[in-house]
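Residues pack. One example:


***
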Amino acid sequence: MAKLPKISERFTSAIQATDQAQRIAQLQAEIEKLRATQSPELEQQLEQLRKQLIAEEGELEIAIDLIDPNWQQPRQTLTSESI
């Protein structure tokens, strides 16, 4: 009899997304708290938190020429503003 996959494995991505969303919310709350207190090192701490948010969101900057076209893309025209 074939072994069935564990149901928890099917929800790994959803769990990670939820954890990530909670961490982002915590960092955003910390930013607001720092803004409210107007501490002297506020800008430096905000920059560090921004970098953390970007790193956790998985935001990457890549050259456009490294992107291969998707021939199944329903949009036929992409403006530079939409990219």
The helical segments are 12-37, 42-57. The mean pLDDT is 77.
